[in-house]
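Our consortium's second objective concerns turning raw sequence data into structural hypotheses that experimental partners can test. To show how far this objective has progressed, the report includes one record in full. It was chosen at random from the queue rather than selected for favorable results. The single chain below, 391 residues long, was entered without modification.
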Amino acid sequence: MKELELKYGCNPNQKPSKIFTNDGRELPIQVLNGRPGYINFMDAFNSWQLVKELKAATGLPAAASFKHVSPAGAAVAKPMSDTLKKIYFVDDLELTPIATAYARARGADRMSSYGDWAALSDVCDKETAKLLAREVSDGVIAPGYTDEALEILKAKRKGTYNVVQIDPDYVPEEIEHKDVFGITFEQGRNNLKIDNEMLQNVVTAAKDMPEDAKMDLVISLITLKYTQSNSVCYAKDGQAIGIGAGQQSRVHCTRLAGNKADNWFLRQHEKVLNLPFKTGIRRADRDNTIDVYISEEYDDVLRDGTWELFFTEKPEVLTREEKAAWLATAKGVALGSDAFFPFGDNIERAHKSGVEYIAQPGGSIRDDNVIETCDKYGIAMAFTGIRLFHH
C-alpha cells in the first residue's frame, strides 16, 4: 500500500486527506482495526519515534501517551511501587514489562492522557491490551500484536478502536518536507542520538549525577525531542512526571510542567490514597475529583455539597500547609529543557518540585545567573549544547 485515504484532515472541513511516502515506497504501517485520522497518524508517527528511541537509549521497553502531537506521558519499564500502582489504577492487573511502561506513561498525567494515542516499543501483549481496553483511548501503534491482544483491542469502542502496526525496521528518507500555506519547507531529519554522552559537560559546583538520574535526564530529553516547543520535562524513576508543551515563555513552560509534577507527588499523599470514593465511580471521574481535591477549589466543593456525588463521607481537607510539607519531601527529580534557560527564575521554580539534576543546551547571555541559582540549591546541571525544538 503506497497511500492511505483519511476521513479528513485536522478538521472535518479539510478534505481531501491522505498519507503517503514522498519516495513512492510502500507505507510502513498496516491498519489492523479502525480508521485512524490525520491527527491520529501525527500522534502515531511522533510517538513511535519517541518510544523506539527510548528503548534504544535505555534497553528497556518503552511507552508513550500522546495528545495533539505532544506526549502527555512517556516511560520505560521500571518496576512500580504499590503506591504508584494504586494511583495509576492498575493495582488489580497483572503487568508485563511493556504493560508497566504504558501504565507509567498513562498514569503520570491521567487527565491529559484521557483520549490518548498510545505507542509501544514492543509487541502488544494481552496484559497491555487489557489495560488499553478499559481506558478512554483513540488508538495504539506497536511493532506487533499477539493474537489475544488483537482480539481484545478489536472489541474496544464497539469495534472501531484504531490499531496500527508499524514496521520496526522502517527508516525514513534523510530529507523531510512539510507544506505550509502552499510553500514547501525542506530540512534534514533530526537524527540526533541522545544518550549519557550528552551529560558530560556539568557546569555547576555540584557534579555528581547518579546513573538513575542520567537515565531520567535522557528520558526527559528524548521526550522533549517529540514535544511541541517551547517544552520542559520533569522526570523521575524512569518516567516523565510533568511535561509543559507549546508555551511561548519558558518560565510558563517550567511552571506548567512543575505543577503537573507537583500533582503527581500529591496524588501519593496518604489523604489522597485514602479518599472514600463511592463504589462504581469511574476512573475518569476519580481523576477529575482528585485533581479538584488537591487544588484550592476543594473549599468550594465542600461549601456547595457536591462532594456527596463521589464520596461516602466528607473527606478531610488537605491543607495548604500539608501540601507544602509533602512537596518539600520531593527529591531527586530530573529536568530537561529543549532550549536554554534565559533566567534563574526557571531554576527557582524547578527547585520547588524537587529538581536536583538538569540538562539544557546552555548558551544564554545569563548562563552565569542560571548556574549561580543552581549552585544556591546544590543542583547539578549539564550543558548539552544541543537544542531540541520540535514544530
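The partners drew two points from this record. The mean pLDDT is 95. The radius of gyration is 21 Å. Both points have been shared with the crystallography group to help prioritize constructs.
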